[in-house]
Amino acid sequence: MRKTAFTTTLAALLAFLPLTSLAQDLAITHAEAWTMAGADGGKISDATVIVRNGRIVSVTAAGAVPQGATVIDAAGRMVTPGLMNGATQLGLVETGAAQETNDKTSTNTTLGASFDIQYALNNNSVLLPVARADGLTRAVSYPGAAGIAPFMGQAATIHLTETGDILEKPQAALYVQIGSATLSAAGGSRSAQWQLLRNALTEAGRYKPGLPDEPISRLDAEALQKVLKGQLLVILTQRESDIRQAIALAKDFRLRVAVMGADEAWRCADALAAAKIPVILDPMDNLPISFDQIGARLDNAALLGKAGVTMSFYASGNTIYLSYDAGEAMREVAGMAVANGLPYADGLAAMTIGPAAIFGLSDHYGTLAKDQDADIVIWDGDPLEPGTYPWKVFVQGQEASLETRQTLLRDRYIRPTGLPPVYQK
Q1: Do both 354 and 223 map to the same domain?
Q2: What pLDDT is stored for residue 18 in this prediction?
Q3: Residues 210 and 303 in one domain
Q4: Residue 217: helix, strand or coil by DSSP?
Q5: Number of domains in the chain
Q6: Which of 55, 257, 392, 406 is deepest in the core (most CB within 10 A)?
Q7: Residue 8 lies in a domain
Q8: Same domain flag for 137 and 116
Q9: Which of 363, 388, 418 is the last residue of a domain?
Q10: Coil, strand, or helix at residue 80?
Q11: What is the DSSP string of 286-354?
Q12: Residue 409: inside a domain, yes or no?
């Protein structure tokens, strides 16, 4: 009876432990490991990657395999950290045309800086397995717009685990949008957009609990006070003049600022580097969709990298790739950046250590190094080539399924070899 009771109690306790605490030791051998933890990508040939309890123990050339470890022979395949997309709406948008599956935007005029998308994240989105099966293990999910210009709201970083809550870091950054796309909401002038933002920061600095909600609400004041205390402020803007205004804003208010979009960032790359302001960009942008983007060019990333600007990549595709194929599309635009002059290692960095540094995850993610989360991808080729896909994906040391709704549909309807062709008229 005692043995049964003990066994039952032990099983109940184990059920509440994280999956990674039950993971077997893992050894990935004969890998071409791009650790991202050194110069030129920290490449180690014939590497052995040791994982224990969901964390990386070591990455060494021809390293010894611990007794009892599960061994996976990479057979010379390229191995990288799990990738991170710097701008998605994963977990917020399922079907763009169905409003009930679209939680990225709020028209509630009482919510500006305080609009927070974390409460809407859908752990069961069918788009998450697609992204994960393409090597994405982390992402930023950011809001579309809030009810008060120029604010978009609070973003979160997500961890693409197979089970449990995908929310990793709530309120990872406050987003605002400046430029022609949102002029009407601010009265028709980008000067008004900057004035509204500066005034809101000033009023938030003066705000104290108990004061009337004028000219700024309590919720927005509290949200902006976090920015004044060091929360990242991401400014979505394109034009050089607006990027220079972002640099000035960071200096005047002593803020942590990143610029997103930034099609004309190459024109002020040295100023961004000097101010230590990172850029989140889509290297595929090379057409002037608006007058703000007349200076768009395919070597934007290369020029920023040469100046020493920290970067993170994403793919927009007119917002389609913010949710759909977020992993594959990001790798494609990274390949375009490299094809247009960005060093190869820098292209990988913009999908790993770059976003990790920008969004404050570097203490546990971004490299294949000791004590980092074992988010690892073994590729069947060069990840910057469109025809390459993951051979295996690990999230915190656990091998993730590469099965998606698309693969299930493929397997259901594909015509088995040897059967006669479908009747044709």
Answers
A1: yes
A2: 44
A3: yes
A4: coil
A5: 2
A6: 257
A7: yes
A8: yes
A9: 363
A10: strand
A11: -S-SSGGGTT--TTHHHHHHHHT--EEE---TTTGGGTTTHHHHHHHHHHHHHHTT--HHHHHHTTTHH
A12: no
Q: Are residues 61 and 91 in the same domain?
A: no
Are residue 387 and residue 335 in the same domain, yes or no? Answer: no
Q: Which of 267, 378, 362, 246 is closest to 312 using CA atoms? A: 362
Helix (H, G, I), strand (E, B) or coil at 162: coil
CB atoms within 10 A of CB 231: 18
Structure tokens at 28: 């990935």
What residues make up the domain containing 330?
Answer: 83-363
DSSP 227: H
Angle at 275 between CA 186 and CA 333, to 5 degrees: 75
CB-based contact 33:401 (threshold 8 Å): no
Joined together, the tokens standing for residue 75 give 């057979």
* pLDDT (tens digit per residue) in 271-319: 999 999 999 999 999 988 899 999 999 999 999 999 999 999 999 988 8
Burial class of residue 363 in the structure, from the number of CB atoms within 10 Å of its CB (0-12 exposed, 13-18 middle, 19+ buried): exposed
Structure tokens at 397: 């040391």
pLDDT tens across 122-174, in order? 999 999 999 999 999 999 999 999 989 999 999 999 999 998 899 999 999 99
Q: In CATH, what number is assigned to the domain containing residue 149? A: 3.20.20.140
Q: Which residues contact 364 (CB under 8 A, 6 or more apart)?
A: 371, 372, 373
* 112, 279, 366, 391 from 275: Cα distances, Å: 27, 12, 23, 40
Would you state the structure tokens that stand for residue 33, as one six-digit string?
Answer: 């490991």
